Amino acid sequence: MLPLLTELAKAGGRIAREHFAAVKDQDITIKGSRDYVSHVDRQVEVELVRRIRARHPDHQILGEEGSEGTVTAAGYEPHRPLWIIDPIDGTTNFIHGIPAFAISIAFVDGGQPRYGAVYAPVGDELFTAERGSGLWLNGQRRYCSACNDLGRALIATAMPYRFPEAHEDALRVFDTVQRACDDQRRGGSASLDLAYVAVGRLDAYYELGIYPWDTAAGELLVRCGGGVATDLRGSADDLIHRRSMVSAATPALHAALLAKTEPLTPWLDRPPFSA
Hints:
The protein folds into two domains: 2-141, Fructose-1,6-Bisphosphatase, subunit A, domain 1 (Fructose-1,6-Bisphosphatase, Chain A, domain 1), CATH 3.30.540; 150-269, D-Maltodextrin-Binding Protein, domain 2. Strands 3-4-5-6-7-8-9 form a seven-stranded mixed β-sheet, with helices on both faces. Helix 1 (2-19) runs antiparallel to helix 2 (39-55) and helix 5 packs parallel to helix 6. The protein is an alpha+beta fold. It is built from seven helices and 14 strands. It has helices at 2-19, 39-55, 91-95, 167-180, 190-198, 212-224, 251-261, and strands spanning 28-32, 35-38, 60-63, 82-89, 102-109, 112-120, 125-130, 134-137, 140-141, 154-157, 183-185, 204-208, 228-230, 244-248. The mean pLDDT is 93. Strand 8 (134-137) and strand 9 (140-141) form a beta hairpin.
């Protein structure tokens, strides 16, 4: 299965690279508050769906852009294999000519990711993982860092930009974490943030307001690299409806970060985070 994920990621990456830094305003659609999609997102997703359908016509596909032939979270059948794809994770970066974006692909069976690929086409970095086997960066085995101390941790995060009603609490937690850790980064691509945790470039990542296509592949990378990935309550269940993520290189660091992000947990009981 990993060879197919590699093929898909590279195919999507070629399309994205061809159009990188050349997207015009007329090629961009606003889906919601600060949520953009370009014609390239749609083009990549259509190509990935086509290739998956050619190999596995009976599999389900959940894509961020909802292309023809894909399912919705509400229509997902847990007993059937599922592909989760984000054609360009980091669209805002992409349309502004910032190279921090990726193609994210996960194969899910039994409700959990089994195979994952995150491909950063500008730097030609392919992160792949197979549950129970390991994590690789361009074919080389890699692991999370050994960081146990929150005070020494470099952490990635993002604001729940689609949900301004949660901004005040998110900023408060950002300040709390900032005072406790080494430093924080806001890269603009959840899948890349998770990939960087998986290979030890970052020590942890947290976010409120994510969707399965943002994190399905990345959370598998982290786990296969030896790290921990859950929601804000510490649960790894319900991948499809999960709306938050806390991942860390070690269990001790994960527990420390969960404690700092606890003020965000009430949002998980409120729409749209409870969807």
